[in-house]
Amino acid sequence: MLVSIPCLLGIVAPSAVLAMPAAPQTLSTRSVYTAPRLVNYVQTFHDVDGNPLDLTKLLSENTQITHVNLAALHINDDPNGITLNDVNPNSTYWDTVWSNVTALQNGGIKVLMMMGGAAPGSYPRLCGTAVPAVIVRNISQLAAEICEEHGLTGRGIHQDEAYYSVLRDTIKYHKLDGMDLDIEEAVDVSCALALLQRLDTDFGSDFILTMAPVASALMPAGPGLSGFDYTTLDSQATSSTRPNGKLVTWYNAQFYNGWGDASTQVNYDALITAGNWLPDRIVMGVLDNENDGGSGFVPISTLMATIKQLRVNYPSFGCAVGWEYWDAGGDDGFAQPWEWVKAVAGSVFGVGIEMPAANLTNSPVPNAPPPFPLLTQTLVDLGATWPWAVWALNVSDGGLAEAEQLLLEAKQLVKLPL
């Protein structure tokens, strides 16, 4: 759904050549800051037949996956009510998962926890309502702020870190390698910055910090779900102790649901050029099964061709991330999800395979397939741009009247016809 901005780089004829990329590092020697990467999200912890998901297959079948993101962690109203999906991460319910995690980590695979996603509330609870945000808020402090707004004294109300401390302790207890922040609710940029800074302070520069914005949010003035500009955040989220000088090591950009298109390299080329991003910091997020999103699924053969093209275009290409693991490859004829991961790894890490010539496009970015195509066109006919129409319908979950109101409030529609 990115804005149509031509790439400013030259075109090279796309004739096929046999290229020999350098052999990839083994997992045990790979730096967490080194591209390429192959990442997969795990949110559903059973297979398509309802059996517990065995994550160790990612290791034993030599899929070459580098990072696994467990999803999704939620900060709830009760500070002690933190949940992985709907269950406390310390419950015995997750014993098999944590055993799998230890095996993956012992094999050199980094395991992160993704926080947020479509369920709202985690980030406002961590950050409170103050701007700039400070990670020292709990229910009592939020109540104090409400009292202050209404001229009440709020006696006896104290400030502590009830929400953040539970998050911090959960990360420590399970020995996670990092956090992936998926902010799909509007917060001030200072909230994201304060949380990144606090995690960096508490866990050090070896702790991996990533974020998962929709791809369009990484374009200049592009619509997104987080409520802030990622270029602004990235310019402020710096660290002299991290190898790339940035708190966010890379972005798992969502190229589906109308936010981007992974069927060709055009969308990624435009994002890198117009957004002025380093390609090793932008990992292309895709659906690994059509059922895992509203639109934008790319079949494996097309996806692998896109990845190979981007590898040639950008030697430091950040590579790919799949959402989500449990049914990966089902639409591509794979019987097991690890088979899809291993197939994608062939294009991410493949040595001695046939590669295309560099082909940095200057084509306008086509409209990415949206979840609500007819309604999207209706909003475009009313005067909205395609990216903003997609944004409004994603936020409203397909509600046309609400989408129209959102566009009016965002000043992306002048007025509705009588």
Helix content: 25-40%
Query: In percent terms, what proportion of residues is strand?
Result: 5-15%
Structural class: alpha/beta
Major beta-sheet overview: 8 strands, parallel, barrel
How would you describe the shape? globular
Distance between the termini: 28 Å
Instruction: Count every helix, treating DSSP H or I runs of 4 or more residues as helices.
Output: 13
Please name the CATH topology: TIM Barrel
CATH superfamily: Glycosidases
Q: Measured on Cα atoms, how large is the radius of gyration?
A: 22 Å
- Can you count the beta strands? 11
Number of domains: 1
> Unreliable runs, pLDDT <50, ≥5 residues?
1-24, 154-159
CATH architecture field: Alpha-Beta Barrel
* Lateral strand order in the biggest sheet: 2-3-5-6-7-8-9-10
CATH class wording: Alpha Beta
Could you tell me the mean pLDDT?
88
The topology string of helices and strands comes to EEHEEHEHHHEHEHEHEHEHEHHH
